[in-house]
Amino acid sequence: MKTVTQMREVPVVGEYDVIVVSGGPSGVPAAVAAARGGAKTPLIERFDCLGGMWTVGFMNPLFDSENKGGIIREIVDSLKKRNAWGGFWGKSFQYEEMKFLLDEMCRNAGVEVLLNTQYSDIIREENRVTGIIAENISGCGAYLCKMLID
């Protein structure tokens, strides 16, 4: 198999405490928790909305939600207040309201949400991950971090 070695300079777009890759059911709570804890946190999402399998993948209902606490409990309680919870087995949500809620939670926590942004590589120093390379309509950029959650 032929290969090509690519060497290029990539501009550093930002430096963060925590970077979260993927704005799905685990990524959004991770980013919100990190930002609420005082960490400068971007959330890198390849699709045009947050929610992952909940919203883009249409995974509904949210089983086992009654046994969850923390941010998942906040999500369910907020959906109930918006009349966007119930339906199928009493555990379903309205997709668009879920998208709005997740955006709102991230914004209120101070998470920098980057939609339509594709993670393409990691940056390492010896055995430690120190950032990622991501690409979007603005081009290719390096996002440096102290911790990466993927």
Protein architecture, described:
- The protein is α/β, with parallel strands linked by helices and 150 residues long.
- Helices cover 25% and strands 32% of the residues.
- It has 3 helices and 8 strands, in the order βαβαββαββββ.
- The strands form 2 sheets. It has a 6-stranded mixed β-sheet. Strands 3-4 form a two-stranded antiparallel ribbon.
- Helix 1 (27-36) runs parallel beside helix 3.
- The protein is elongated and about 55 Å long.
Keywords:
elongated, 6-stranded mixed sheet, 150 residues, 32% strand, 25% helix, alpha/beta, 3 helices, two-stranded antiparallel sheet
Number of strands: 8
Distance between the termini: 30 Å
Largest sheet: 6 strands, mixed
| Gyration radius over CA | 17 Å
SSE order in H/E notation? EHEHEEHEEEE
With helices defined by DSSP (H or I, 4 residues minimum), what is the helix count? 3
Strand content: 25-35%
The strand line-up of the biggest sheet is: 5-2-1-8-7-6
The portion of residues assigned to helices is 10-25%
Would you identify the regions where 5 or more consecutive residues have pLDDT less than 50? none
